[in-house]
Specification:
Layout: H1 5-23, E1 31-34, H2 41-47, E2 52-56, E3 59-61, E4 65-68, E5 71-76, E6 83-86, E7 94-97, E8 101-105, E9 108-110, E10 127-131, E11 136-142, E12 145-147, E13 150-153, E14 157-161, E15 166-172, E16 175-177, E17 180-184, E18 188-192, E19 197-203, E20 206-208, E21 211-212, E22 219-223, E23 229-235, E24 238-240, E25 248-255, E26 258-264, E27 267-270, E28 275-282, E29 286-292, E30 295-298, E31 312-316, E32 321-327, E33 330-332, E34 348-352, E35 355-361, E36 364-366, E37 371-377, E38 380-386, E39 389-391, E40 395-401, E41 404-410, E42 413-415, E43 422-426, E44 429-435, E45 438-440, E46 446-452, E47 455-461, E48 464-465, E49 471-475, E50 480-485, E51 488-489, E52 492-493, E53 497-498, E54 509-511, E55 516-519, E56 585-586, H3 625-635, H4 656-668
Parallel strand pairs: 1-2, 2-5, 3-6, 4-7, 5-8, 6-9, 7-10, 8-11, 9-12, 10-14, 11-15, 12-16, 13-17, 14-18, 15-19, 16-20, 17-21, 18-22, 19-23, 20-24, 22-25, 23-26, 24-27, 25-28, 26-29, 27-30, 28-31, 29-32, 30-33, 31-34, 32-35, 33-36, 34-37, 35-38, 36-39, 37-40, 38-41, 39-42, 40-43, 41-44, ...
Antiparallel strand pairs: 54-55
Helix pairs in contact: 3-4
Length: about 675
């Protein structure tokens, strides 16, 4: 039977009231104050019901706190400078166990010394978080100063989970400083055992000047069983060690377990002679190291040889799986050069004997004192190196392979480095693809060096290898099968297959002295490439192709073209000069850089000037499909795509009228507007 209208309306209102009641924020629980109502914080903890907020007034409280199975909030009224909890070396300052759910906010926690036992080392001098026997412990530490604490593991904080237990730990805006671990994890130690999971979310924290005996001056992450998992997600943290030789600031060591380390918007100060972040997996571990939109800065020591060491280091044995993501980040001043017989130390070191996936994308690698990166594969690896700028380093990228390697190098700028830009040593099976890269101005024996004692297949396409001090391309002639096509290559040594479309000519960079390696309007590299396997965007994120064909090198010409006026001289057409020479192949290694006078001068094509029209981004007298796509992208607010010939009013965006005018130009041909 159909319900009456009034009943149906009332039922609807009742349902909505239930929804409102169930989704409204819960009213705050009871609150008590220390020392107004309780003389000590521990006495307040013991007496308070769950969900109570314990407010602590300023003072120095000489006690240790135990929160066993409690759900409480401890909150200072005036912040850590005014409110101190001092353990006086008697135990951990705070111990949180037995399924507790606790928030601690606004305290200084100091002078803790974790209790030792003959059976196991001590943990958590400042804070101990311990989950056992299937329990789940949830902890929030917000706005605290954790300092001058001591333990074997986790001088500042230790999280331990065993036997199907779990810990979730949120660290927000804390300072961990001058804590000490006699073994590992001066600031923080995380240890997960059988079927246990620990998840640490760390944001806006400072870890600095903590020390350790073995591994991880600032933090130690350690899943020690096949079923153990540790996840460390860091956001906007700053990490600075006490600069002791051999220090790893972040030390991740997975034994059979799963370790996931993700650092976003982080600032990592690489210690003298040490390592910024080190993640290692053995005995079937699965490890991931992600350094995203972050910075690593090397710290110089007082001596001539006291350079910073490796910023990021990851390795995995033959039974383990490794994933590395270095993306949208900068590494500056790391590494160590080869001096006085000492081997050079790269800014990034990656070494896998198992299964590996490595992504190095959109990074700025400048001013490092060693090679930019050394990647060693002894198992199976997929390596992608895309859209990086490696400029003014001691050396470029070194790749060593004895296993099976698939490597893609696209859109990279490698310029003005002291040693070779790219060195490949292959004793296994290597498949290399080198597309739309610009390699120039590097010193050393060879810019692109390939040494093969295995089965190496290398394809070089749409790339500039020109203007380097040594050979622009060098192959030792062993077993490498190298094909070069549609590229601008200077001097070469060794055997390769000419795939067609190659030439050797001055690339005509805008301003190499000022490190601007984009192309001049009369560059022979414009429209000289192929779209086959070419990346969709260039190094700066501009769409390819801009003109009639893909340009050679990492930069697509035309996006910075100024708005032409009636008195402007139009830029050259995007056609490579017919006077470009073929690649010279050396039968003997040259003793010096080829005579620059042998390179023909590329001049603009002498054609009558063409009046530009709306949408003619490159000024060649017509509007192409690619330029229309660019115009649509600008209309949709694609800020990286700029074409002044579309944005005629200079407003910074494309209007519908301007877009329609560009389409009309494409259909009707160019005419004065």
């Amino acid at each position: 039977m159909k319900m009456p209208l009034v009943v149906r309306l009332w039922a609807s209102i009742a349902v909505q009231l239930v929804v409102v009641v169930n989704t409204a924020p819960a009213s705050p629980g009871p609150a008590v104050t220390v020392p107004t109502e309780f003389p000590t914080i521990q006495s307040a903890i013991d007496a308070a019901a769950d969900d109570t907020t314990i407010r602590v007034k300023p003072g120095s409280y000489r006690e240790t706190l135990a929160l066993r199975g409690r759900t409480l909030i401890l909150q200072s009224t005036d912040g850590p400078d005014a409110t101190l909890i001092d353990a006086q070396g008697s135990d951990s300052v705070v111990s949180i166990t037995d399924g507790a759910s606790v928030t601690i906010q606004g305290f200084t926690l100091r002078n803790g010394q974790a209790a030792r036992s003959p059976e196991q080392p001590s943990s958590g001098g400042g804070v101990l978080v311990d989950a056992r026997s299937g329990t789940v412990v949830n902890v929030v530490l917000r706005g605290n100063v954790i300092t001058d604490n001591l333990a074997d593991y986790g001088g500042g904080l230790s999280a331990v989970a065993e036997s199907s237990s779990a810990v979730t730990l949120l660290l927000d805006g804390n300072l961990f400083t001058q804590n000490e671990a006699t073994r590992s994890g001066g600031g923080l130690a995380v240890n997960a055992d059988t079927e246990a999971t620990i998840t640490v979310t760390s944001r806006n924290n400072h870890f600095e000047l903590n020390t350790r005996g073995n591994c991880g001056s600032e933090m130690f992450l350690n899943p020690v069983a096949e079923s153990a998992t540790v996840r460390f997600q860091s956001s906007s943290d700053e990490i600075r060690s006490a600069d002791r030789t051999g220090t790893q600031e972040l030390c991740g060591y997975a034994i059979r377990g799963h370790l996931d380390v993700e650092m976003t918007d982080a600032l990592l100060h690489v210690p003298v002679g040490g390592i910024g972040a080190w993640v290692s997996g053995v005995n079937g571990a699965r490890i991931r190291l992600a350094f995203l939109n972050s910075r690593a800065i090397g710290i110089m020591g007082p001596g001539v040889l006291d350079f910073a060491n490796t910023a990021l280091y990851s390795d995995a044995d033959s039974d383990s799986e490794m994933t590395v993501e270095l993306e949208d980040s900068s590494i500056i001043g790391a590494g160590r050069p080869e001096v006085l017989g000492l081997p050079g130390a790269p800014a990034v070191t990656l070494n896998s004997s198992g299964r590996a996936s490595v992504l190095l994308r959109q990074n700025s690698l400048r001013g490092n004192f060693g090679p930019v990166a050394r990647v060693s594969n002894h198992g199976t690896m997929n390596l992608v190196v895309a859209a990086n700028a490696a400029v003014q380093n001691y050396g470029g990228l070194q790749v060593e392979n004895t296993g099976t390697l698939t490597a893609f190098f696209t859109n990279n700028l490698v310029a003005d480095n002291e040693m070779d830009a790219l060195r490949v040593y292959d004793q296994g099976t290597g498949e290399l693809r080198f597309v739309n890269n610009t390699v120039t101005g590097n010193r050393g024996a060879a810019a692109f060096f390939v040494s093969s004692a295995g089965q190496t297949s290398a394809v070089i396409t749409n790339s500039i290898l020109f203007g380097n001090d040594g050979d622009d391309f060098y192959s030792d002639g062993n077993l490498a099968e190298v094909t070069i096509s549609r590229s601008n290559v200077g001097t070469t040594f060794g055997r390769f297959t000419d795939g067609g479309g190659n030439f050797s000519a001055d690339p005509r960079f805008q301003n190499p002295t000022g490190q601007d390696y984009s192309l001049m309007p009369d560059s022979p590299c414009i429209d000289a490439g192929t779209s086959e396997n070419a990346p969709a965007d260039d190094l700066e994120g501009h769409m390819r192709p801009f003109g009639t064909a893909v340009d050679i090198g990492a930069f697509e010409f035309g996006y910075a073209t100024p708005t032409p006026t009636a008195t402007d001289t139009p830029p050259a057409t995007r056609t490579p000069s017919a006077t470009s020479t073929a690649i010279p192949t050396n039968t003997a290694r040259p003793s010096s850089t080829p005579d620059s006078t042998a390179t023909p001068t590329i001049r603009p094509t002498e054609t009558p000037p063409i009046t530009p029209c709306i949408g003619d981004c490159n000024g060649d007298g017509r509007v192409t499909i690619g330029e229309l796509v660019l115009s649509v992208g600008m209309a949709l607010d694609r800020r990286s795509a700029q074409c002044a010939a579309v944005d005629r009013d200079g407003s910074g965006s494309v209007t519908v009228d301007e877009l329609v005018a560009a389409v009309g130009s494409a259909l009707a041909g160019c005419a004065s507007r």
